[in-house]
Structure formats: structure tokens, C-alpha cells
Amino acid sequence: MHQKRPPVLTSYDLRPQAAGLRARGPLVQVEIPGGVIAWAVTTHTAVAEMATHPDVKKGLSYWSAFSRGEIPPDWPLISWVAAENMFTADGERHDRLRRLVSTAFTPRRIEALRSRVEQIVAALLDDMASGDGTADLKESLARPLPMTVITELFGVDAATSTRMTNLVDTAFDTTSTPETAARNQTALMALLGELVAGKRDHPGDDMTSTLISARDDSDRLSESELVWTLILMIGAGYETTMNLIANAVHALLTNRDQLGLILDGSYGWDAAVEEALRWNAAVQNVPLRYAAVDITIQGVTVPAGDPILLGYGSANRDPAQHGPDAHLFDITRQQRPHLAFSRGAHYCLGASLARLEAETALRMLWQRFPDLVATLEDPPYEPSIVTNGFTTLPVAFTP
């Protein structure tokens, strides 16, 4: 008798797939790109427990199939699991990398960006206003705002920024062929290697220079760690914030009653951002973690060496955590903790910056264009099992 093959997690319709998997149970085996079988974690309780479990690891050595040589070097998601930065580190190594990186990512430094974020948003809205009253909100605001912020933060010039944007977009596209993914990773590492070399010779007042000089006693980031850390910080700081802004705008445009509660002063823009983070998370699934030993969570045992896919998007719509109306966008809900920025040791360092950019973008957008409307009610999503964002978000307004 043949064993039934697990369902295939495709790069489209992530939210319906998440609901279907959650209905099957808190942990469900699925097939992800490249034919890899992983445990999808679907509920809030299970994801939170996995994210903080001491025997759930990030290091590739814990993945049995990889250790046996069964995962090829051109596997489409290899850059998500083989990066030499804190995203794939455990224990003391993770703590060391995070400690060195956090010296450049302090709350004080983020707050100091507020006025610059407002300047960037104002300039982007000026460009929108100079047109014919229509725009692709993603290309006009959601994409250029976080990319400008993150590239300025890391001292990246305009020409390099354009090349880097294209490479980062491809890195998040999990439908790329193995050959494309490999070429893209090589190009991105080379580009950021050039950035590190330039900043080493000519340091400036930017995070790349700060990371190069960051020390903890005699400890410092290696050259490879520097490049991989830049890939993590720039990629996460750009792609996820872009999707957060676009997802929040779309949620408000298609839930006009919720928008009205903000415009009449009943709720602040922070409420819209927090609900958007929960309701349509910019990151739906994060590959991969591994069971270091047999682990039983919510009555399901994950054998040692098996890979685990944390379903943050599914967890954020879990009725057990957020109520029977968890599938609805509602800024008035009694907000319980969500997992949009993960939990535990790998909680997102850039969470405060993402919130700052999104709240500023929403507030200034509706101040400038109070009659903003969506001209496509159900815009298509980019293909990915990881990130969750629109390919386009067309809007209309009075210039």
C-alpha cells in the first residue's frame, strides 16, 4: 500500500492554503519547492512553541536530509537555510551575531530616522500628485519608501540600490529555477561584497561602516558574516516593509468602515498597522527550522532531523488566538499578541523601523489624498511561499 503524499504548498493562494492546512491540525506535513517534505506549523500556540523551543534549531547540521547529501546545492530555497548570519544561527553564535548587529540598530537610531522618513514620503506623494490621478501604490510608495530608507541607512548609492532591488526581489521569488536562484545569490553576494570593500576603504556615517567597526571586546564580524548580515538586514528591511505598507493600504481601501474609524479620530494609524500585520502578514511562512531531537507539540511528534516550516500567516488568523472573526480585518478588536515579527531569540530587530515607516506612510497618504480609492479590488499576489505581497496595487485620487 502506497503512503499518501503530503499536499503541495504552492506559491499562490497562500491564505486559503493556510486555512486548509490549519483545519488539518497544528502540524501538517507538506511538500515545498524542490520536492522537500517539511512540517508546516499552522496554529498560534504551535508556532509560538516551536519558535521558542530549545530543541528546535536553525543550523543546517540538524537537518538529516541535508547531512545525508539529499539536498542539492541549487535547491531553490538554499539561500534561506545556508546563509551565514544570525537568521540561521543558534545559541552562542546567534547571540554573538545579534549582539554585534544590534549595536548598529538601536531604538535611538531608528527614532532619529522619523523626520527623514517623513521627507521621503512627502517627496513620493509629490510625484504621485504630479500625475493624472492614478498610480500603482506599490511602485509609487510601498516599494521606494523602505528601499530608500534601508539603502540610505546602509550607505548604498542610487545606482547600486537599483541593482540590489532587482536581486532582492528575485531572492524572495520561490518560483525561481535553481539556476536563476544560484546566479542571483552569487550576484547579490558580489554586489554587497563590493559595498563592504568600499566602506572599509572609505567609511561613512552609515550602518555598513558601523557593522565593519562593530566589536565586542576582540570579536568582530568576519567578511562572510558581514555580507550575509547585509543580505538579511537589507532584504528583510525592504521586502517585508514594502508588503506591510501595500497590504495595509489595500486592507483600508477594501474595508471603508475601518478607514472611517481612523479618519474620524476614533483610532490611530498604529491600530491599522498592527491589524494589517496580523491579518495579512508580510511574511507567511519562514523556512526552515529543524528538530534536534524527537519533539511532541500539540500531540504531534516531529522526528529528530525533520525540517519545520513556521506558518506565521496561518497562526495570525488562528481563531483560537484571535477569535471566530480572525479572518476579518478589524482594527477595533482586542488585540492579542500576533507573530508577524516572530517570537523568542529570532524576533525581528527591524520591527520598530517597519512600524515607523508604515504608520508614517498611511498617515501622510490619506492627509494628501483623502479620496483615495482602489481601482482593482482583488490585485494579484507575487508568487512565493514565503513573502506575501501584491504584484501591483492600482489606485485613483484627486491630484
Account of the 3D structure:
α10 packs antiparallel against α11, α13 runs parallel beside α18 and α15 packs across α18. The model has no long low-confidence stretch (mean pLDDT 92). The chain is an alpha+beta fold and 399 residues long. It has a single domain, classed as Cytochrome p450 (Orthogonal Bundle).
Short description:
This protein has helices spanning about 15-25, 45-50, 65, 80, 90-100, 105-110, 115-130, 135-140, 145-155, 160-170, 180-200, 205-215, 225-255, 255-265, 270-280, 310-315, 320, 350-370, and strands at about 25-30, 35-40, 55, 135, 285-290, 295, 300, 305-310, 375, 395. It is an alpha+beta fold and about 400 residues long.
The beta-strand count equals: 10
Task: Report the CATH architecture.
Answer: Orthogonal Bundle
Extract low-pLDDT stretches.
Answer: none
What is the CATH H-level superfamily? Cytochrome P450
Biggest sheet, spatial arrangement of strands: 1-2-8-5-3
Helix content: 40-55%
Query: How many independent structural domains?
Result: 1
Mind sketching the topology for me?
Blueprint: H1 14-24, E1 27-32, E2 36-41, H2 44-52, E3 56-57, H3 64-67, H4 78-81, H5 91-102, H6 107-111, H7 114-129, E4 134-136, H8 137-142, H9 144-153, H10 158-171, H11 178-201, H12 207-213, H13 223-253, H14 256-263, H15 269-279, E5 286-291, E6 295-297, E7 300-302, E8 307-310, H16 312-315, H17 319-322, H18 351-368, E9 373-374, E10 394-396
Parallel strand pairs: 2-8
Antiparallel strand pairs: 1-2, 3-5, 4-10, 5-8, 6-7, 9-10
Helix pairs in contact: 7-9, 7-18, 9-13, 10-11, 11-13, 13-15, 13-18, 15-18
Organism: Nocardiopsis ansamitocini
Keywords: Heme, Iron, Metal-binding, Monooxygenase, Oxidoreductase
InterPro entries: Cyt_P450, Cyt_P450_B, Cyt_P450_CS, Cyt_P450_sf
